[in-house]
Amino acid sequence: PTGSPTGSSGAGLPGVCGQPQHPPPRQRRARTRAGAAQKRVPKMGGFRSGRTGFRSGRSAACRGGVTSGRGGPASRGRRLPPPRMAALRTALAAARSRSRSLGRRPPPAPCSASAAARGAMEQEPRWLAGLRFDNRALRALPVETPPPGPEGAPSAPRPVPGACFSRVRPAPLSQPRVVALSEPALELLGLGAPPADAAAREAREAEAALFFSGNALLPGAEPAAHCYCGHQFGQFAGQLGDGAAMYLGEVCTAAGQRWELQLKGAGPTPYSRQADGRKVLRSSIRELLCSEAMHHLGIPTTRAASCVVSQCTVERDVFYDGNARPERCAVVLRLAPTFLRFGSFEIFKPADEHTGRAGPSVGRDDIRAQMLDYAIGSFYPEIQAAHPSDRVQRNAAFFREVTRRTARLVAEWQCVGFCHGVLNTDNMSIVGLTLDYGPFGFMDRYDPEHVCNASDSGGRYAFSKQPAVCRWNLQKLAEALEPELPAALGRDILEEEFEAEFRRHYLQKMRRKLGLVRTAREEDGALVARLLDTMHLTGADFTNTFFLLSTFPAGPEPTGLAAFAAVLLEQCASLEELRLAFRPQMDPRQLSMMLVLAQSNPQLLALLGSRESLARELERAEQQSRLEQLSPAALRSRNEAHWTAWLGEYRARLEKDREGASSEEAWQAERVRAMRASSPRAPSRRPRGTTSRRQAPLAPRPASPQAARAAPDFWLLQVRRVLRLLEAPYHGEGGPVEPDADSSKPPLWAAELCVT
């Protein structure tokens, strides 16, 4: 026997997902009482009261002696005679058996690598057998040699100098089950459509659960974790890396494409720091849905092919209030040409002047050159071909293209109201993809200062600041490429390219959203800016307003204008919504202290980074005061005046766009077609639980939360249903639009939702 009552090695009970876990205090007390009650046997020395649970290592009983918890002969170190020792072992075995049924809940399913799990690792795929791996990244870039030590040592947190990857092994999960498969993403791997036969679909899902959870490895897969650094909220954080993600390898398809496969949430890596390398179900569902939603919106993004949930649980403090609770582990299979990011090149950064942190590979210019050769040769072959012998010009062309792609990407975000939430340099892709879906959000009421990440108290990553932050991140990438890219050349490229490319792409998209399909005019930028100002002043819903503009009566006779204006005004925020939006965020005492500080020591206020927070809070207070004096009728009248003024400008601009059209009907058709292809009808807020009146649910909705818990497949079916809805976000060309069918505003309680 060992010090663990279950016979597992190491300290404590076998934990969920491979982590040691101590039983709850009440369960510990029950086990201690059970061990002492049998024939009045002294307590085992391997038990200890308090929060530490069980002692590690071998217990006193294993050494041939028993130490009593409180006095008695054993406490004086006397040996028990053999008959008494045999009786003690029998009593302890009985106590362990009974103690499993005691306590608040049964012990969670152990998720350590058991013999059964290791057997699963060796299973052969059937449906996935055609995937052909060619892991070029691991051949082209340095891979860390695993440190010597016992099992689990390769995943121990540590600095990783001189390497871009570390070998890892997924930690198996208990009873994995598929939540959803994205068929369009799986088609990229050449896996084909799902079978019509129910039994075949079931077998397919079982295989997906096994291999896409990390419980088994596909032939040719070589799990590794990527080493990178990053600037987080403007400060260099040093080594970060794939703390919860694992590179599986690169699949080459018959179509000539190469896709990097990655498991997110598959267990600890050398970069997990103090975390467990797991992701929970709620965040995994969000990543699956948003990755695929962004793709179908036409925005460059990494893809999510599957989400698998398990019976393993991990503790998460959801509200950061000290009340951690168990949540089920889940794993997402992600696809991308590459997951290299700006932070991949920051591992060479010397000690930062502000934080004192440095990258793990300072001075390794040879690895930086290797990374550039790999990135350009693999993902920008046209640049490599154009500059075969001039490294500086090749690297400049690479940085120029990354700058352009990033500018276009953030312009796409601004046109659909998408907030990333954590635009750190380690979350920026070198191939211009939306990367790492954490506390993201889509705006409802238009607010340029909207912050979707509740952890971003300073508003660094607010919606309107995303373009400037992306440019700042590009500057950090340019610095990380030195000396391969001279500093002055990097600054010049950024100055020349970013703003011009962003504005060009942004206005191109906005013109289509407004139906300006024939001519581009200099004043279009001002028209868009005044539209956004009007939306802000009236609290209009971002997604629905743009979609409804496709129904604007643009003919020579303004018939239906009053009806259109009435529908548009319904998308404006109510008085109650505005009062909720502008309610004070600071405690009155904190506000008073900051006002005093602003007068007595403004330099300290600026150093604390609180100047903007104070300005926003004062603006909220002023708006709240105005709203208290406003009636609903006065608010509607004010909104109507704002919209009447802008719609007049818009009508005049449409008249100019129609000039020279071959026919009124052809121009109208082209205008509506462009608008409906640019402004989504099915807003990406649907994953919050709203449903379309046009789509019947896959299963009857439970009558109560209790009934929902009794129907365990209900939430799973809804996830699959929403995933399918998000595949068609744009309205078709034909048929009239019913503005009230799918364009209802989110409920008032949605404003209280908080994601960190």
Automatic annotation (TrEMBL):
Q: Where is the composition biased (Low complexity)?
A: 33-59, 85-96, 689-698
* Location of the region described as Disordered in the Swiss-Prot/TrEMBL record: 1-113, 671-707
Q: Does the keyword Nucleotidyltransferase apply?
A: yes
Q: Which InterPro entries match?
A: SelO
**The entry's keywords:** ATP-binding, Coiled coil, Magnesium, Metal-binding, Nucleotide-binding, Nucleotidyltransferase, Transferase
- Superkingdom in the source lineage: Eukaryota
Cofactor(s) needed, names only, are: Mg(2+)
MF-aspect GO terms: ATP binding; metal ion binding; nucleotidyltransferase activity
In this entry, which stretches build a coiled coil?
A: 604-631
Against NCBIfam families, the record matches this protein to: PRK00029.1 (NF000658)
Family to which this protein belongs: Belongs to the SELO family.
Instruction: Return the protein name.
Output: Selenoprotein O
Organism in which the protein naturally occurs: Galemys pyrenaicus
